[in-house]
Amino acid sequence: MPDPANRPVLVPILGDQLTRKLASLRGRAKDDNVILIMEVWDEATYVRHHKQKIALIFSAMRHFAGELEDAGWSVDYIRLNDPDNSGSFTGELARAIERHDPRAIHVTHSGEWRVQQAIEQWPGKFACEVEILEDDRFLCPLTDFRDWAQDRATLRMENFYHDMRRKTGLLMTEDGKPVGGEWNYDKLNRESPGEDMDPPPRPTFPPDAITSEVIALVEKRFGGHFGSLDNFGWPVTREQAEEAADAFFGERLARFGPYQDAMVHGQDDLFHSMLSTSLNLGLLDPLDLCRRAEALYEAGEAPINSVEGFIRQIIGWREYVRGFYWQFMPGLAEVNALEAKRPLPEFYWTGETDMRCLADCIRSTRDNAHAHHIQRLMVLGNFALIAGIDPQAVEDWYLVVYADAYEWVELPNVAAMILYADGGKLASKPYAASGNYINTMSDYCRKCRYSPSKKTGEGACPFNPLYWHFMHNHRDRLESNHRVGRIYANWDRMGEERQREYLDSAEAFLETLVPAKQGWAREE
Ligand code: FAD
Ligand code: DLZ
Ligand code: SF4
């Protein structure tokens, strides 16, 4: 029998765990471990991810493997095209066990339910010890979230966020009060886009040899997937991600707050950080980013509403949706409280619609594998909500199209935040809005074939009748909601004839929607 002390520990690192600070890697001796990084067919195809998303993940994985090897680690890297690649994490682990005869496997908890289910089978499948470590890149351990959520009738991000501020000490005074006197400065973060918006271009990173090789692979093996690779410029290494963060803090953070909800045709990044892909891959550390933002506030270089807004997105929303996901999975993937059944319209894939707001958001999604938050929420999401699109079709779409999309963050945002399909556990009201909201927050409507001020009939902005159609159809559920109930008085005041015009107008528009063909999101 070989001496177990001489057998290595096998450390599988998943595609979104690319940091040396990972729990399963931290504090390990370089000569006692084999790191296993796997490009596998099942992960690249369980939905038909945007081409940039696959290229980003494979390139970042390859760069990270190189970084580890340069630092003296032993890395077993499985490429997608390796002839014996079994196509799955479990299959590749079995092959790696044959090769390395490890004494133990140490793996960090997966970000996704589907993958975690597979990992939890490993102790029964393999004859060596399997240790699953908590993913402490997140600031709120899942057990803490569970304790916080237990016995609460409603889970509100704002309450969770206050606790996270206290816990991290971010933007807190010495006597435990929020800096500036308020927890949340969102009311200062709703400026409409001005004529003089001049967001500086964010740094992009043209493909190096590794990325170019991956792009060629993606074109060859996933050429039929949604999206374009032409604009690929995502950070694929920690250094690049840090450079992107430097540019955000130096050039855009100060105006991030005021223009957080603004939308401008053809201006895809505005003052957003564009750091979600790097954060989610593990190239950047969330707390570190928040501390940097806080330091800029303290130095007087960024206003409180920008800094608090940025920190809230990260220690508030990002941590909250992750806890929410694990709290409500696997049921969250099935919810459909509003019984929405309409198929996803074809234009979500083609961008071919006269609705200028949607066409621009879908173009950005196709070209960049990105759209910013308010586009995802109040244009793409709002339309899906008020048109009554089937949640699973919408969830698949969001999971496919964004380079930062992993189920732990996509699903709560889609099922619970935009579609209210969880019946209101996450959001206190549906994010439904008419064309007036989009008109106020963007320049989209100026050149649109539809008019936001026309409410029904030919030329009316479709968001207007759809809004009332949605509110009318869900009156039983929504009227008692104190945040929306009051609007039914406006509806009732309209009188039956006007109401009929709204409902007929909405029905006529919905009739025109062409359902997407099968096969865009998942193999048939
Ligand atoms: P910024 O506007 O600069 O915000 C800073 C950071 O805050 C982001 O990088 C992100 O890490 C975090 N953040 C902000 N809002 C959220 C949120 N609602 N949930 C979680 N984190 C948040 N984000 C993803 O990372 N992956 C997704 O798959 C994803 N799907 C979404 C789907 C919908 C329907 C909606 C409404 C939002 C979704 N988001 C998702 C959240 C948000 O839209 C993106 O994180 C953001 O647009 C990324 O761009 P940015 O880095 O420039 O963000
Ligand atoms: C999204 C994705 C893709 C496209 N490919 C891989 C892969 O080949 N190998 C890998 O380790 N991870 C990949 N991922 C990410 C996974 O689908 C999944 O999100 C993470 O493993 C969750 O921790
Ligand atoms: Fe969108 Fe309506 Fe404005 Fe056109 S008029 S851009 S459809 S909100």
Terminal CA distance reads 49 Å
What order do the strands of the largest sheet run in, or round the barrel if closed? 3-2-1-4-5
Mean pLDDT: 96
The SSE order reads EEHHEHEHEHHHHHHHHHHHHHHHH
> Number of DSSP helices?
20
Helix content range: 40-55%
Strand content: under 5%
- The radius of gyration over CA amounts to 24 Å
> What shape does the CA trace take?
globular
User: Major sheet, described briefly?
Assistant: 5 strands, parallel
Cofactors, ions, other ligands:
flavin-adenine dinucleotide, ligand DLZ, iron/sulfur cluster
- Structural class, from secondary structure content? mainly alpha
- Unreliable segments of 5+ consecutive residues: none
Total beta-strand segments:
5
Describe this structure in words.
- This protein is mostly helical and 524 residues long.
- Helix content is 47%, strand content 5%.
- It contains 20 helices and five strands.
- Strands 3-2-1-4-5 form a five-stranded parallel beta sheet, sandwiched between helices.
- Helix 8 packs across helix 11 (304-328).
- It is globular, with a radius of gyration of 24 Å.
- The termini are far apart.
- The relative contact order is 0.11.
- The mean pLDDT is 96.
- Bound molecules: flavin-adenine dinucleotide, ligand DLZ and iron/sulfur cluster.
- Ligand DLZ is lined by residues 14-16, 38-40, 43-44, 49, 54, 57, 110-112, 115, 406.
